[in-house]
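Quick one: structure tokens for this chain, please?
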Amino acid sequence: MLESLPGELGDDGLLTLLTSRALGGGVPLRAWVRGAEADATRYEDPAALDLELMPLEVRRRLDLAGAHMSLAAWQAMELVSRAALCRFPVDEDDDLADFARAARDAAAAVGHALRERPALARPWDLPEAFSAVRTRASALGFAVEVISWAALREPQRFALAHLAAPKRPDETFGAALLATGLVAP
């Protein structure tokens, strides 16, 4: 896996991983996971911040790439492979295909396959996503304006749309609303 991601971890990333492994996972990885929004650490599940669970940003990238990775596949991968997928750049048009290939290779290396599906056309940017976020926020006593929603970065809209699902805890969704600045305290 690492051979397919030359330089992606960098010296700081590799040092953090080695330190974390030496200390039994006691070093939070969130500080150097590329693509992780600084405010995401305020509402991301702590297990995702330490890469036990898949971070929301990796979920978003998989959705965009048209792939689904099971939790079993994610957890079967070495920590360094999970971290590499978190740090994989997706800034250019071809990056998502490369990311999907790297994720497929990482999952296959531990005996799992990614499930292919049509790449999602950013459903978190559809009016239905905004409506779901607004409705859930209203139930928690927050007012959400469309202009504020439109001003958010894509990873923030994805996270809020994902966390607006009824099965997600109110506390997590409320924290995300505040952390992204969509609502004021």
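Confidence is low (pLDDT under 50) at residues 1-12, 14-39.
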